[in-house]
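User: Please look over both lines:
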Amino acid sequence: MPAAMGNKAGSFDVRLLKTLCEIHAPSGEEHRMKAFLLNYVRKNQRKWKCKPQIISGDDFQDCLLLRFGKPRTAVFAHMDSIGFTVRYFNQLLPIGSPEAEAGTQLTGRDSLGDIVCELDYDHEHHALYRFGRSIERGTSLVYKVDFKEDRNFIQSAYLDNRLGVLNALALAETLTDGLVVFSCWEEHGGGSVGYLARYLYEEWSVHQALISDITWCSDGVAPGKGAVISLRDRNIPRKTFVDRIINIAQKYRVPFQLEVEGEGSSDGGELQRSPYPIDWCFVGAPQQFAHTPHEKVHKEDIRSMMALYRALMNEL
C-alpha cells in the first residue's frame, strides 16, 4: 500500500499562480500564455526529473505540448480565460460566460494604450463599458486581478484555469512518462482538442487523458474536502476508466470528492466528440463564485489535486 499522499503534497507556488492569473489570455489570445509557458519550461526544465520534448508551431496554433518519456496518458490544461470583446460604440460581447456585477474593473490594451474601465449593463442586461474614450473594436477586456491569499483560501479572477495550468507545471517537475497538453479556446466552445487528439493518438497511440481544470462547489461538493473526480457533467466519460481513477485515489489515500452534474463541459467533451478512442476524466479542485472576478479555492483542494495527479500518472 503506498503511503498517503494527501498530506505530502507540500506547498505550491503561490507567486507563480498570481503571475499566471495576471496574464491577459482570453479565448483566441492564448499566445501570451504560450510565450510565458515556453519561457518557463526552458528556464526550469533542467531541474526536472526528465527533460521534455517541447512541441509547438504552426501545426498547433497557440497550443503547447510537453512530451516526457514514453507517454501513456495526456494531461490537458486549457490556457484561456473568459472576458469580453469590444463591439461597436461602448458595447461588449462575452467571451465564454463571464458573471460579473456592474462596476467590475476590466483591463486591456488597444493601439492608443492601456485600458482600465468599468463594466456596466443596459436595461436589457447587455454588457457595456464605461471609459474616458472609445476603445477600438475587437479589443479584448478581462477582469482586473485582485489576488488574495489567507490561511485557507486563494481568491482571484481566473483560478479557472490558471490553477489547472499550475497543476500541470508542478506535475512536469517529476513526470517521466506522459504528455502535458496546454490547449486553447475551452471557455468559448473549444476547437483545438480535436486536432490535438489526432496527434496524440496517431503519434504515440495515447488512449487516456486527464482534464486538469477547475469545477464548481455545489450542494454535493464542498471546499476543503479534496479534489473532485467528476463522474459526469454535460458529457459522460466511460465508467470503467473513471472507476480506475477512483481506485487509484483510494489506493494512495488522496482525499477526493465525487461530482455528478448535468451541465458544464471541458476539454473532455471535445475528446469524447473526436473520432479517436481516448478515455478521459475531469479531475480538479472545486471553486466558489465561478467565472466571477472573485473565484475562490481552498488550499487543501489544490494540494489534493496535485497529489492525485502524481498518483494517477504513476499508475495509469
